[in-house]
Amino acid sequence: MAHGLQIRDEQSGYNKNLFCIPKHYEEDLERVFIPHGLILDRTECLARDIMQDMGSHHIVALCVLKGGYKFFADLLDHIKALNQNGDKSVPITVDFVRIKSYCNDSPTGKISFVGEELSTLNGKNVLVVEDIIETGRTMKALLSKIKDKKPRMVKVVSLLVKRTCQSPGYRPDYIGFEIPDKFVVGYALDYNEYFRDLNVRLERILTSQLYHK
Q: What CATH number did the domain enclosing 144 receive?
């Protein structure tokens, strides 16, 4: 079973005043949950593990948009460095799929796939790159579509996995961090499209109504 770096329930994070927070977000954020440097270090470790398991055959890295784009870009940089500097190298191509299952900070229960063209996955090692997994239902729906295309191998990496009672037990193959059931933003994770431009993983102040307008 995959394990990530565990953030305990009692861990409250870091004082936001110790970090560079954009002025327009200062009143809406509570604390820094996972600093940017820690995210990057953990991402490098994930890239190493992925190449050990998948680096013997053509890899298609499939980014789940929009929240996964920042993690995807950083992860691919590390994977490409390992691929270029290792004893062996394999072709690495990229593709994108957009999934919508949230409204505000709550899951809608409806999953829609936008612009997915998965026919190129046949016979390839497919790495699905996700930002956060909660119940796992969205990922299971995507994996069902991918497996219909008969890839050679499918692995899932998620930067975050939430500990939640709503989860039926799904675990991705690679996990960056396992976190409490808190709503987090930043590093491309959003709240109604805001906060994607933050470089650190942040916890939102739930009482803020600024971005409902």
A: 3.40.50.2020
pLDDT at res. 173: 96
Segment 8-31 shows an average pLDDT of 81
- Write down the H helix ranges in the chain: 36-54, 69-85, 137-147
**DSSP-derived 3-state class of residue 2:** coil
- The pLDDT confidence band at residue 193, using thresholds 50, 70 and 90, is low
CA distance 119 to 79: 23
Q: Is 10 inside any structural domain?
A: no
Quote the distance between the C-alpha of residue 140 and its chain's center. 15
Give the Cα separation of 185 and 197 in Å (integer). 10
What residues form DSSP beta bridges with 174?
157
Residue type, 73: A
In a domain, 153, yes or no: yes
Spell out the alpha helix ranges (H) of 63-136: 69-85
Give the pLDDT confidence score for residue 101 in this predicted structure. 59
Q: Specify if 207 maps to a domain.
A: no
Residue pair 34/8 in contact by the 8 Å Cβ criterion: no
Let me know if residue 33 belongs to a domain. no
Ranges 44-58, 100-114, 138-152, 187-201: which has the least confidence: 100-114
Q: Can you give the residue range of the structural domain that contains 78?
A: 39-180
Question: pTM for the whole thing?
Answer: 0.84
Number of domains in the chain: 1
pLDDT at 68: 82
